[in-house]
Amino acid sequence: MPPAPRTPAIRPVDPRRVRSALTAEWRALVAFIDGLDTARRAEPSGLEGWDIGDLIGHIATGVSAVPRWTSAPEPAGPPLTVGQWAAGVAAGAPAIAEIAHEMSAAGRTPADYLDQAVRAVEATPENRLCATRVGPMRAADMLVTRLIEAVVHADDLERATGAAFPHDRQALAVVTRVLADVLAVRVPGHAVEVRIPPFAVVQCVTGPKHTRGTPPNVVETDPRTWLRLSTGRLTWEDAVDSGAVRASGERADLTGWLPLLG
Q1: 19 and 147 both lie in a single domain
Q2: Angle at 245 between CA 242 and CA 251, to 5 degrees
Q3: Are residues 73 and 199 in the same domain?
Q4: Same domain, 205 and 142
Q5: 4 domain residue, yes or no
Q6: pLDDT digits over 56-67, tens only?
């Protein structure tokens, strides 16, 4: 049985879970990258214009940002939500790429910043405002965005290297649920049930609401496929054709609402 459908809201995640999951995923990233032959850094990453070294540099940037953002003076203005962050990720792509290239050229890796970042994660009050690249965010929400990026880019490394990445289970669960909630908030309704076992189920899309039994429009996939759909690494058509997504019902087509990070 899938879990009960979630309401259309990006619900707060227990900050203790986020801190624990983020630290564990960062440590897994450091171990995975340290185990790669340095010659592989020149290989394509699967992301346009980036080799694996650039991807590693970008991950290092994400780790180094946490102690920088949490130690800067608190900014003014209303804090952005995780949903607002998700909608605006693509706007900073050129600047992000430039920094990734610089970090790669300097040979920086997440290991260079891990200890300082972990201390910042553990010490920062959840309600503290942080001056992030996209604007003010509460520390609790900012750390959720760092967790999303860590899990997404760990998956990028898995695809680029062909080696299975050992995600922290809690990290994968939190990110899967948050991205499912982003869809439910962005496309509210009850006509389609999206199942991502064992971590999430949401209802979305306007239309007839089912009240009992199996709903007429169902989408089901696994967490890794959901990550790739949410970030545009995988198209809906390719996912359906390969069997990675099982969709039934005339409304069970999410093409128009993916990717979610844009």
Answers
A1: yes
A2: 125
A3: no
A4: no
A5: no
A6: 999 999 999 999
177 and 157 in a common domain:
no
pLDDT at 8: 56
Residue whose pair of structure tokens reads 């920088």 in the numeric block: 68
Per-residue HEC secondary structure of 78-142 comes to CCECHHHHHHHHHHHHHHHHHHHHHHHHCCCCHHHCHHHHHHHHHHCCCCCEEEECCEEEEHHHH
Enclosing domain of residue 233: 171-257
- Both 207 and 156 in one domain: the answer is no
Residue at 2 is within a domain: no
Residue 262 confidence (pLDDT): 67
**Strand-pair partners of 218:** 193, 248
3 state SS of 221? strand
What is the mean pLDDT of the segment spanning 11-23? 94
Contact of 176 with 260, CB cutoff 8 Å: no
Upper half-sphere CA count for residue 167 (Cβ side, 13 Å)? 23
Q: How many domains does the chain have?
A: 2
Give the predicted TM-score (pTM) of the model: 0.93
DSSP state of 51: B
What's the residue count for the chain?
Answer: 262
Q: Is residue 132 part of a domain?
A: yes
**pLDDT > 90? residue 3:** no
Residue 144 has pLDDT above 70, yes or no: yes
